[in-house]
Design goal:
With about 290 residues, the chain is mostly helical. About 60% of the residues lie in helices and about 0% in strands. The protein has one domain: Ribonucleotide Reductase, subunit A. The longest helix has 30 residues. It is globular and about 55 Å long. The two termini are about 20 Å apart. The chain binds fe (ii) ion (2 copies). One fe (ii) ion binds next to helix 6 and helix 7.
Length: about 290
């Protein structure tokens, strides 16, 4: 597929049609408690896309017609993912509570946003950071949904996730190709982007959901033999980006924050403190 064929990319947008799902059957199949917890996290992050979009639109990304065209479709589809997952949760007997009003930004968050705005205004190539971040997060999300379908074993959920994964796959393709092209064109872009990802990247949802939830999700989806294999596959793909050939990423993050479950079933892993690590500056796209 030519991922730069934007007309093709956007014309194939077809969000999940709720009419094709057997919603009454949802509650007839068991939904494991960890899968429910993971779904709540993912639904919240999907519905948070508008805030990522706000960050993107504050950069030079808006000056690029290709990016602007993609973002319209991307936002539409991500928002639809949040809606369909919310409907599934409601059908399973766990309706999503209305999102509480966002707390005012902390001083640190305001400084961070200002820093991004200043760098974004001064450096015209700044979208390369967003494109790289987006590629990592889309691939992590896509892989996470695949793992969730495997772990949950719920037929209706698998049907929904299969459709969502097709969208995430297209999103990943666009971001990855954009990132690869922009990184290949500039040594400076490679150096800065690599440094930022290495220092600040956390799985999508960090900073939006509590750290305990992010670590739970990563441990649930990317631990064990199958989970580790999935994390390694994400890392292998991202290492195809120029400048990222030896980048430690998802598997290293899981190693660091999600120790193998012990006799307490892994609950101790959720208590690992991460004070030694910097907070992510922003989560960009997913
Ligand atoms: Fe999504
Ligand atoms: Fe996506």
């Amino acid at each position: 597929m030519n991922y730069f064929d934007l007309a093709s990319l956007t014309s194939r947008s077809s969000v999940f049609d709720p009419a094709v799902a057997d919603w009454d059957a949802v509650a007839r199949h068991p939904l494991p408690a960890p899968a429910l917890r993971a779904l709540r996290y993912m639904q919240d992050i999907e519905s948070h896309t508008v805030f990522y979009l706000r960050e993107l639109l504050s950069t030079h990304a808006v000056d690029d017609p290709e990016l602007a065209g993609f973002l319209a479709t991307w936002f539409y589809e991500e928002t639809a993912h949040g809606r369909v997952l919310a409907r599934f949760l409601a059908a399973a007997g766990h309706p999503v509570a209305p999102r509480p009003r966002r707390a005012p930004r902390t001083l640190g968050e305001r400084i961070e946003a200002l820093g991004i705005a200043v760098i974004g205004a001064a450096w015209r190539d700044f979208p390369v950071v967003h494109m790289t971040w987006g590629a990592i997060n889309e691939l992590t999300t896509l892989t996470g949904y695949r793992r969730l379908a495997q772990c949950a074993g719920h037929p209706i959920l698998s049907q929904l996730l299969a459709h969502i994964m097709r969208d995430e796959s297209r999103h990943f393709g666009f971001y990855f190709e954009q990132a690869a092209r922009r990184l290949a064109a500039s040594r400076r872009a490679r150096r800065i982007t690599r440094t930022l990802v290495e220092r600040f990247w956390d799985p999508v949802g960090s900073g939006v959901q509590p750290d305990t939830e992010t670590r739970f999700l990563a441990g649930y989806l990317f631990s064990g033999d199958d989970g580790r294999a999935a994390a390694r596959a994400v890392d292998r793909t991202i290492r195809r980006l120029p400048g990222f050939e030896d980048m430690p990423l998802l598997e290293a993050w899981v190693d660091r924050y999600c120790p193998a479950p012990g006799p307490d079933g892994g609950r101790s892993a959720l208590r690992v403190e991460r004070s030694a690590f910097p907070a992510a500056p922003t989560q960009f796209a997913h």
